[in-house]
Write a structure and sequence with these properties.
The chain has 211 residues and is of the alpha+beta class. Strands 1, 2, 3, 4, 5, 6, 7 and 8 form an eight-stranded antiparallel sheet that branches. A hairpin with a 3-residue loop joins strand 5 and strand 6. Helix 1 packs across helix 3. 27% of the residues are buried.
Length: 211
């Protein structure tokens, strides 16, 4: 599984404002060349994007489906198109001060990509997704309201280093005290439904020590 991490100079809400606009998909996903249709429910679970991959005139029409969506925290998509055939892409965002640490993970789950040696496929995906996060940074930071620090583009133009390669674990624990948002997830027939009350009860089973 390929993993890329980058620090974005904006809030998680700014990042998900870009992810939540399906028409911007070709602007940050490397290989996607145009959008054809976006479901009105995007980015909720089950929503679809209909896009094209490749370079004109050799374009392939395909789609991406949301499997799970947690506002301002994570998004899992099943993407179809070049170069792996079909892949599961997970984007996670954590707060780190006034910035966001964004991690993207991708693995081939169907199509030609499953037959490519894993190490070679990971190298290809890592290279591609480094640029994907670079583009996402431009969009999220450029559209951020009230930003009080230089964007990636401004840092690059002034000769400063970008935010690629920053540790995901550095942001571990950030935002843990925040309320957990509602999860939008595509239901599977084999899954057992767990009510929110049950989940809350389970989370609070640990008894605080007595004085």
């Amino acid at each position: 599984m390929s993993r890329n991490v980058r620090v974005l100079h904006c809030t998680p809400e700014d990042v998900f404002e870009v992810l939540g606009d399906g028409w911007l998909y070709p602007s940050w996903v490397v290989g996607a060349s145009r959008m054809r249709e976006v479901d009105e429910t995007w980015p909720m679970a089950g929503a679809e994007l209909h896009h094209s991959f490749g370079v004109w005139p050799a374009l392939i029409n395909d789609k991406t489906v949301v499997e799970e969506f947690v506002p301002s925290r994570s998004m899992v998509m099943r993407a179809r198109g070049w170069p792996v055939g079909e892949a599961r892409v997970t984007i996670e965002v954590k707060t780190r001060g006034d910035e966001s640490v964004v991690r993207i993970q991708e693995e081939a789950i169907a199509g030609p990509g499953r037959f490519v040696p894993r190490q070679l496929m990971d190298v290809m995906l890592h290279w591609r997704n480094a640029e994907t996060l670079h583009r996402l940074a431009y969009l999220a930071e450029g559209r951020a309201s009230g930003r009080n620090q230089a964007s990636s583009a401004q840092r690059e133009m002034s000769g400063e280093a970008g935010g690629a390669g920053d540790s995901w674990s550095a942001a571990s624990g950030a935002g843990e005290s925040e309320p957990v948002p509602e999860v939008s997830r595509v239901a599977e027939a084999s899954e057992t439904s767990v009510s929110p009350d049950a989940a809350t009860s389970s989370a609070g089973d640990t008894e605080a020590p007595r004085p």
